[in-house]
Amino acid sequence: MALRLYRSHRAALVDYAKGITGSRAHAEDVVQEAWFHLDRKGDDPAIREPIAYLYRIVRNLAVDSIRRLLRERTRCGVDIEEAARLVPDESPSAEATIIARDDVRLVFETLEDLPERQRIAIEMYRFGGFKLRQIAERLNVSIALVHLLIAQGLEACDRRRNEE
């Protein structure tokens, strides 16, 4: 019953909460929290008017969230939402992404050109997370040789990236 009630009144509840919070996104969060509250109550016989009860929950949660936001602003002296918008975006630029993709392409091309044993050693170490000892056992060579194969292979990858 609670789910049917929520679905049929969700849009109106969001509009109602938006009138209190001033933000559609904030209103969506409030209505969702109200749904969780109502769902936890289940079919409580004490709730005689479930629609009115749901609206009351939305109102109380919306008012509480506004009060909490005002307390944060008073305590911090800053609008938290405004401060969040001022935080710089740390995602890489389009140029950095293209350069990184090109580097990856060059590394994979270089790996394909390496001798098979060296390529396997690098792939196991860098991509598989294997220890030198495990690689040495798999390739049936010494740990020192595995170390040398990996070091020389990675140097070849770096040279190729620096050349292009």
Automatic annotation (TrEMBL):
It comes from the Bacteria. The keyword Transcription regulation applies. GO terms for molecular function: DNA binding; sigma factor activity. Residues 5-69 form the RNA polymerase sigma-70 region domain. Keywords: Sigma factor, Transcription, Transcription regulation. Signal peptide: none annotated. The keyword Transcription regulation applies. Residues 109-157 form the RNA polymerase sigma factor 70 region 4 type domain. One of its GO terms (biological process) is DNA-templated transcription initiation. Belongs to the sigma-70 factor family. ECF subfamily. This is Uncharacterized protein.
